[in-house]
Amino acid sequence: MSQTARERRQYPRVAVAVPVELDVFRQNRVISCTSVNLSAGGARVRSAVRLEAAQTVLTALTIAGQLVTTFADMLESLIIVDGGATEVRLQFWYMSPRRRNALVALLEAVAS
Domains (ranges, CATH) in the chain? Predict the structure, then answer.
């Protein structure tokens, strides 16, 4: 990752695999995924189902036994040849300060 990309990140990313559900409004379905990495500002998730970028989703994830929900934009999609999985980058755009602080604390606990 370039230095510029690292500097843009407001929150550090933690490599952690947790269950994630994406409620895809335009497709009227819920897709189960697994996180590849996670921060208080976004995530990269992997799914066996093809994920299309440029959609808004309601994201629900469980980390350290805590359920965290937020709206997110799916920004880019990458198809991984092995097994046909898809990865997508999520940018969280609505999370209350209380929930964001709780997520930061959970991620710090997982990272240490």
Answer: 3-111 (2.40.10.220)
